[in-house]
Amino acid sequence: MLFRSLVRLDGYTDDEKVFIAHRYLLPRQLEQAGLRSEELEVTDEVIAAIVRGYTREAGVRSLERQLGRLVRTATAKVATGTPAPLVVDAHELSAWIGRPKVVDEVPERTTTPGVATGLAVTGVGGDVLFIETTAFPTGPDVEPGLTLTGQLGDVMKESAQIALNFVRSHAAELGLDEAALRRRFHVHVPAGAVPKDGPSAGITIATALVSLLRGEAVKPTVGMTGEITLQGQVLPIGGVKQKVLAAHRMGLTEVVLPARNAIDLDDVPEKVRSQMTFHLAATYDDVLRAAFA
């Protein structure tokens, strides 16, 4: 009988991707193109620029595709008489492989009140999710309640309902107008083609709702993950390393984590940890202090 198991990888840091590219990916592309290593000079700076500007992934598949494109351009130059060695300048990458494909969308997406940045684990490693919220006045055709969109699983739907009920029941403590809570709320998680589930978006949904009701934008530097209870306790979640790596990859500099996940930070590479600030939350009050300027 044949048994199969699914192996989940945490994802690579930028430094690990640069090492893999030099050791394995670039030599393979050079061999396939019939180019000698001494004919093309690609520095660590160039590969790091490709990682940051042309790929946003946990693995290295897209990185190898971009290196292949770079090598093919070099091959064409050598074939048309350009003297070797060819030296690639990190500041002139667009001439080699086109314009950068990765846009830093976090500041743009989070400038509007009602949006918070969450962290998740998908089939390809950690990822960043934007939780968007809006509200409608009630009337003959609009009843108070909650609308959810974005291909959410049952557990995530429950998390959204718990987050809304927590916000409603603690309106005074959160500095919210209770009358404004008697509306219909819509919570949307973009990238609707990607299924999403799990309880770890609880504090992110609550923060997006608080942001909407306060009319105050969440800090664009902050990503968060954690389950919330009706009493405002923040419960631990899984996938801390993958989520932190995703936050770092997206340029976030602060991460809110459940306090009981503090031990999991030991799994995060030291270089990544040193570049980020971690807010350990035991209750939603801790999340609130970290989320808003």
Description:
Helix content is 38%, strand content 18%. It has 10 helices and 11 strands. The chain has helices spanning 14-33, 44-54, 61-79, 94-97, 106-109, 154-169, 202-214, 240-249, 270-274, 284-291; strands at 40-41, 86-87, 115-122, 125-137, 145-149, 183-188, 222-224, 227-228, 234-235, 254-258, 277-281. Strands 3-4-6-5 form a 4-stranded mixed sheet. A 3-stranded parallel sheet has the order 7-10-11, with helices on both faces. Strand 8 and strand 9 (234-235) form a beta hairpin. Helix 2 packs across helix 3 and helix 6 packs across helix 7.
Taken as a percent bin, the fraction of beta residues is 15-25%
User: N-to-C SSE series?
Assistant: HEHHEHHEEEHEHEEEHEHEH
- Number of helical runs? 10
Mean pLDDT: 88
Helical residue percent band: 25-40%
Based on secondary structure, the structural category is alpha/beta
Distance between the termini: 58 Å
Strand order of the largest sheet: 3-4-6-5
